[in-house]
Amino acid sequence: MEFASYLAGERWSDHPACTHGTLAHLARLVNDRTSDAGRAQLTPLIPRVIGLTSDDPMLDVVLAVRAASAALPIAAEERQRSQAVGLRVALEILADRDDEFAADARELAEGALRVDPGADEWAARFIAEIGRGRRPGMTARQCRGIVTGAVDGIARACVADPDDRLVALLAAAVSDTERFVDAPSEPAVLMMDADLPEAGVPAVVRS
Question: What's the predicted TM-score (pTM) here?
Answer without folding.
Answer: 0.79
